[in-house]
Amino acid sequence: MILYSYWRSTTSLRVRAALNLKGIAYETRPVNLLDGAQKAPDYAALNPVEGVPTLILDDGTVLTQSMAILDWLEETYPEPALLPADPVHRAMVRAAAQVIALEIHPVNNLKVGAALKARGFDQQAVVDWMCHWMDKGFAAYQRLILSEGRFSFGDTPTQADLCLVGQMVNARRWGLDLAPFARLVEIDEAARALPQIAAALPENQPDAQ
Amino acid sequence: MILYSYWRSTTSLRVRAALNLKGIAYETRPVNLLDGAQKAPDYAALNPVEGVPTLILDDGTVLTQSMAILDWLEETYPEPALLPADPVHRAMVRAAAQVIALEIHPVNNLKVGAALKARGFDQQAVVDWMCHWMDKGFAAYQRLILSEGRFSFGDTPTQADLCLVGQMVNARRWGLDLAPFARLVEIDEAARALPQIAAALPENQPDAQ
User: Nearest by CB to A95, which of B68, B103, B112?
Assistant: First the structure.
């Protein structure tokens, strides 16, 4: 498989971590979002949203959208499971994952930041904007997960933890006060201690700068 | 089941339509987002994101996040299917659905509009902002779906169509130019012609104003 990825993209991180945890070999092809490589016609033909990640299967099938890719991986390579077996438990893991994937990340990504700057926000106003949504979203996430266990939903990582690890990278990068989120800091630490997740972190990507 | 819903909420519409299509009886409990009912302590205890929808199962289990609820419905009430059986086809439907659920809606919802106004946007600037993301997102959606068939992925509706119908309500409300999106207008029309989807439209809710 080929994964089009950007080192700092947290949506790419989710997929890198899932591939690693499931032991699937892949080749990383960096897409430099800062240079606008996602808008190059050849790439935009693969990924009409002009974003990362894009996963190319061995038969040439093109998959986009990180959460759709995570579900495809889960259905195709079920072990180790990143979702519980019981439908209600799955829904709870998905809801927590989606607090990050739908309530925080889309409002905070690179293109939204650029659109805000084009409308008069300065850098500090964009950082305040990002921290506002992270603060609200993390508070909700913390109430949706279990209060004990190494990870958000027990002693093995789930899709929710993969979303969390990526968002924590951004939280630290933009200086979010993590004091109210001790449980999330703990989970993040446990997750980053797994070599498969460590290998998915931004600083360990071939295009890291 | 009890569905906490707001008539104009397109995330609520997705779940109403799925419940109707699957023939599941439910009682609607309106949450007036304009009055801030989503922030009332009793409601926020159910839904820490302080949003709609929230689905309460007959045993009291609380499910949040529209896309997680759609997947739970699919796993628990598989007929009629709103996702194809083949994992790659499922991933493609999910990717299209997520272009709306992750790339358009989260950047355009009521709380983001309010946050932009609190930061100096006037009403017209907020409308321009919403139309910007709808225009980009719809263009991508149109490239991710099939070019023929009554619905986005064939002759039966999927999760992607449910997301589309809701977003088209907002597109019309905010005056998006739909000329480039003839295929989406056609699909939307086919979807609204189904009585189960018609019953999920904003104007047919008990709290419609």
Answer: B68
